[in-house]
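task queued by scheduler; priority normal; single chain, no ligands, no partner chains; default sampling; output format set to structure tokens
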Amino acid sequence: MTALLAPDPTDTDRDRRLRAAAMRVLLANWTGSGTVPSRSLYPHQWSWDSAFIAIGLRHLSPRRAQRELESLLGAQWLDGRVPHIVFNPAVPSHAYFPGPGFWRSSTAGRRAGAPAGVQTSGIVQPPVHALAAWLVHRADPGESRRRGFLARVLPALEAWHRYLETHRDLGGQGLAAVVHPWEPGLDNSPCWDRPLLRVTPAPAGSFRRADLVHASAADRPTDLDYARYVGLAAAYRDRGYQDHGRGDHGHGDAGVSGARPSFAVEDPGFNALLIASEHALADIAEALGADASAPRRRARRLTDALVRRLWDRERGVFAARDLGDGALLPVTAVNGLLPLIVPGLPADVAGALGATLAGEHFRLGEVHMVPSYDLTGPQFDAGRYWRGPSWFNTAWLIHRGLRATGATEPADRLRAGILHDAGATGFAEYVDPYTGEGHGIRDFSWTAALTLDLLTDPEDTR
């Protein structure tokens, strides 16, 4: 394992060079209305990527950061969902799979209110957007007010949260559920292995993986996992992207009107980000002179449900709950640490999360950033996507949570590690937690954006 030799944070020359390099990445990946995660593997606009990118862009151009979010929200469906991909029609159809021809949003999603003038996917990603909008506003409140930024995005953000808190409360217990492993962002995490067993894979030869053209197969999900992702997405599409529809591929609750999808999971990271964004929504309402009591109440209810439903006291971590059998999934992963960002999390829970983060499962300060999966777990793979590697966006969220809970020393160590790894790997998508070797795509937009944020505003958690 390589030593974590982060340069002295007072090294302003290092900071200037890193800041300039991060800006170059964001400028190169800007399309005129939004930012692609990368020009190769991810040539469209992704939902939670754009939120993280806007958080960094606010330090480069607050107006461009506003446009980033406005562009994404312009593709919102009438039911309130913000799709996880907004497709650029200028990009060749073979450049990414599943592309617009697979999702067929304007036809398959018509009942759910998919826009007719733009093609999107039909699933969602974690709701970081209200938090991003609030941080973007605060970067230049005068410019934000002149453009009416908050007033224009507030209705879209409220509709987005309503969708998640109504359509997606599939367990009836007050938490939003995800219906595809891509939705919580931890695509091939071991968290999803068990619920995915209920999903019939798409037939071999029925699709072509464009991701393997740009990335090593050893770094990406396996063919079997990918076939299950495609089969599950196709089933959701074929029932018109309805969240209470028929069961998928003849499993479990098939044929029962109003039944849950075969993959339905309450994820702690997804719901933690929803809670943080409810608090941000309240801040936005207050800035506009509106009543902020409703989002505050929703945030409290969600927090109570999060702790009641997903806190595993014995393991000292939050766990996803499989709505297929009602059980907490016995997997320790980074999504279980993300509730550190929740304002008002009970102190004993926050303390236990800090201890878990420092313990043998994640070894904060001893390895690079925060592994995506338990270092001692049987499915750990240091190089394969979300089955072990450390990611910059989850590290940024945990840094924010640590600072908010007063754990400044581990937060400072984590910040130094994030900046070191970003610079050393050329803004890689993710890194090996033991060696720090970069994996996936380089010049990755959210890595550059969150690096820029930590260089500019490292202590801001409001």
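post-processing summary
- Confidence is low (pLDDT under 50) at residues 1-8, 245-258.
- The longest strand covers residues 45-46.
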